[in-house]
TrEMBL record, chain A:
Residues 22-42 are annotated as: Disordered. Residues 1-22 form the signal peptide. Transmembrane segments: none annotated. InterPro entries: AB_hydrolase_fold. Pfam families: PAF-AH_p_II. GO terms for biological process: lipid catabolic process. The keyword Disulfide bond does not apply. It comes from Planotetraspora mira. This is Esterase.
From TrEMBL, chain B:
Residues 1-20 form the signal peptide. GO terms for cellular component: outer membrane-bounded periplasmic space. Residues 178-226 form the PDZ domain. Keywords: Signal. The keyword Signal applies. This is PDZ domain-containing protein. InterPro entries: ClpP/crotonase-like_dom_sf, PDZ, PDZ_sf, Tail-specific_protease. SMART domains: TSPc (SM00245). It comes from Planotetraspora mira.
Amino acid sequence: MRQILAVAAGLVVLVSACSAPAPPRSDASVPPAGPAVLPVPTGPHPVGTTVLYLKDTSRPDPWDPDVQARELKVTLWYPTEQRDGQRARYMTPKESELFLKGTGIASAPYDTLSKTRTNAIQDAAPSGRKLPLVALSPGFTKPMSTLTSLAEDLASRGYVVAGIDHTYENYATTLSDGRVAECLACDSDSDPGFGAGAVQNRAADVSFVLDELPSAWDGSGLIDQSRIAMAGQSLGGAAALATMVRDPRVRAAIDLDGTTYARIPKNGFTKPFLFLGTEQHVPGGLDNSWDRDWKLLTGWKRWIVLTGADHESFTDSPLVSGALAIKPLPGALAAARSAELTRTYVAAFLDQHLKSQRQPLLEGPSSRYPEVEFCPATCGHS
Amino acid sequence: MTINRTAAAVLALLLAAACAAPTPPRGQAGTTAGTVCAPPSGVPEAETATTIDVIEQAYFCILGNYYSGATLDARALLAAGFLALTQELNRDGRDVPEATMPALTGDRKADWAAFEAAYRRIADQAPDLRDTLAAVTLEAMVAALGDNHARWTHDVKPPPDYYDGDGYGLGLQANVSGWQVDGSSPRVALAPLFVTTVGGGAAQAAGLRPGDVIEAINGQAPFIRGDATPAIAALYPDYPDARPVRLRLLRQTTGRRWNVTLKPGLYPRDPATLRVVQSKLLDDDIAYVRMTGFAPDSANRVLRAISRMRTGRTLAGVMLDLRGNGGGSPVEVARLVSAFVHGKVTAYQCTVDGRCAKSSTDDTVELLNLPLVVLVDHGCASACEHFSSAVKDLRIGRLVGTRTAGIISGPAQSYLLSNNTLLSFPDRHHLGPDHEVIDRIGVPPDQYVPLTPEDAAAEHDPALAKALTLLHK
């Protein structure tokens, strides 16, 4: 009976928590506006990108019991001096199709997302020295590319970004042999303990990537291995917390609107942490996890809520919704604004904690960004 | 009481998630009925206090939509509510001279008006108890239906330190379930009381093991002259009950007898053990699948697991372990039955005047054409019993273990009340494929194989062993 109780509780938590594929935001759709164009990165550097395929033979795949190794696709974004060249592809037509079908979006041709224009130059030579590294983890069911706008912006500001497609945890990831891995984890995402198990798997994925990066990527000599942070959206944000708790290399982390699952040690945990979320995540809301964790974080911490944001505001979804003929809900943040807010506050946190540059933006409300509320002190219940 | 509440709430929640009402509820009893309450939609909003207006809404919601709402004597609901109200006053060490039951006539609306007037008079004299009085009154009215799928879900708040997958309690399960103790399930409890599983928490920290016999709970005997006593309920505290529980234990293998005090609390559990569908190959030719609930898509998960184990191998049969399966969606039941037989009725859902709808097999599901043995016990409830009775009546497999819970009145529908609490109950009652009542009676196993403390201590699973021999015959 205890177990059934937890089943129910788990369902409730999950429902309010992660996945919830973004269905079209209103019943009225608009004519498609041509291919989506991701906003230009704001930092001083041009951006390069490349893909690595890594295989962890020390553990079986957590979702496919027939596979004795964990295969991961890692997308790197980094500063480069190269301004011209082939822009990186956002998704393959097949990935776009599987992602849109899985998410329940049928308002545009299924290959639409593959036409999205990105800013990073494919396989450009990396440049810079002693670059801080940011691991990036997307939301459940979402390919890594759904955080491209954020990743490109961080790279332009002088970060190396390692974005991880957690295999079988999204609708479409093309693996090294051309096979497209689909969402096996979606089978069990309503199980009690699903989130708790998933973030531990993701933490293992990230630690493995940090282990392998020096030997797997030619540019890794540019990375300052002592300055590593992690960020993620939704389940990816929960994974950022889980990874920070168990991997000493990860010094700081950001959770973008994700219900959290990892246990923070109760004897004080001092690494810097940023919660950045929607009004669903105000103190005392439906999801108890941020309130619970807030008490256990004893170092530098912020809890920021963006008025008018929704769960997808931290991803590329608003930026591609026009191309998908999805009309935003009245009162929603404009796509460009949600991208600006996400990029600005994520970068401010990383600049402060990996580059030791004090950020007044993180000290309190700002007239430039009136959408930003600092919790729990000055944010009201929605 | 609290355990009863939780068990029912949990079933209701699972069913609410599963059994989406295909059509809006029909009104059967007067003009207010049918429109007085609607199924929930969208994100739930914060609960507010229960008032007499909420009770009124629930009263007419039941009369308009419940299985026997059109025919039941509404005076019985009002009397049950009124009794609970007076008991709550007395429990608080007071009474109200005017707290006498008003005369009722059988006219549902007039009777409500009389009840409401009396209620207001009483509640006005105990303003500090207002919210509690309303809650116990409504709880008692719902309980008066005597229906194990009727439930009012309110004040649901997980513990603030709750993590996904956590359990709450002592961290143990015994051979007598909470449902047996609180009366949800009429299954007979047999002495001795012993630990069957240790899932974590205080029980694990204290070194308890399966097979440990519980000789006393808080100094009280679990059985008196063979009958289970209410003392057993202390094994299954609900949050926020955190009162320590003192146990006297006997480990039969060593003869050791000792006392422990276990404090209820949240405890983490291994996510791998919480997966609703788990599978493994037994003896290299039996596909064993354990299913803890008929959750959405769970039938497909079971079938995919079997198909994976069948790849490159000739299977001798399928063993479905449904012990402790608390139920879920009838759609999943029908799908899973359909992997073993086509063109059959798996159950009937009947109105109080005997009009029945059929649940039929989904003949688009590919037949497995494999022998089937199903492990059942007193923890197999609701949709699990739908499945078990279909297996038995349609002769698609054999049941091994002990009789099922008998908690299957009918699939519950949920209705949102004006204070954002949920009222759930069935509008039809469940019958098996042979039109037999399953509720309370349960489904008897074809092979009766109970668990003994000796088996539990030795980590021996006699039901599973019996199932293996049946499949290998």
